[in-house]
Amino acid sequence: MAFIQGYEFDAMSRRPLYGDVTQRLVDLCACAPGSVVADVGCGSGLATELLLERFPQLGSVVGIDPSDHELALAKERLGHHPRARFVTGRAQDVGAVVGPVDAVVLSNVMHQIPRAERHSVLRGCHDLLAPGGRLALNTLFYEGAVLPESRRFYAAWLHATRTWLRGRGGDLVLEREAPVALETLTPGDHEALMAEAGFADVRSEEDVYAWTLEDWQALCGYSIFVEGATGLTDVDLGSRALTAALHTVFRDLGLSSVPRRWLFVHGTRQR
Ligand SMILES: C[S@@+](CC[C@H](N)C(=O)[O-])C[C@H]1O[C@@H](n2cnc3c(N)ncnc32)[C@H](O)[C@@H]1O
This protein's superkingdom (predicted)? Predict the structure, then answer.
């Protein structure tokens, strides 16, 4: 998994669609005045920003991310904020990089954690929380995210990407380990993982969001997505291939948007 400068998640995180999704996640946190929140896998800081807006009496938000490129963007946006700070670190080591907190947000991070490590990440977040503290996560890569009627779109997009690359003497890299994002779990699996990690009152909810061409295009500028979708280490080439193919498929299938489900899961550390 490569974090490449110039190919951060930022363009996607600034899409109105993504803003709506992240606002919904933040609303699930219900932070009391003075609370400290960890935004684990904060990227360029959208959830941190929305948390500070939604709960103006928050004590502070600590954004944690392993990518210094993502953190540079977060600091550019929010580095001046007296109640936001950003540290380099992984969700797997969260207890070593941040002290006790009242809430944890994992905004579209779980599908970037290898499946075998998801339990210990949730356990680490649980142990970080004060009794009664909440964890809220969401993900768009899980079992059930793709609606049956959209399968045709994904197949056509992959095919058109391959055709574009082959026309330039290249190809998709098919012989490889499956990307971590495709180590998918069902909503029920997510709930069970949360319960096994010690959380109570675990709930999950799903909703369908309509992705426009501009939304997908923004995702095509993200290195982790490009690498996962194409297998290419040349992210610039992969990004151009996916973007060109996207335009072809939206045009050929006469699409204005593609629906996809998003999963939200939340729970509380027992008192
Ligand atoms: C899809 S982006 C979401 C970024 C941000 N949370 C948002 O919603 O805008 C996933 C983020 O997870 C981060 N990430 C990847 N592996 C991680 C890990 N092991 N621990 C914590 N964060 C990780 C990536 O660097 C990236 O910033």
Answer: Bacteria
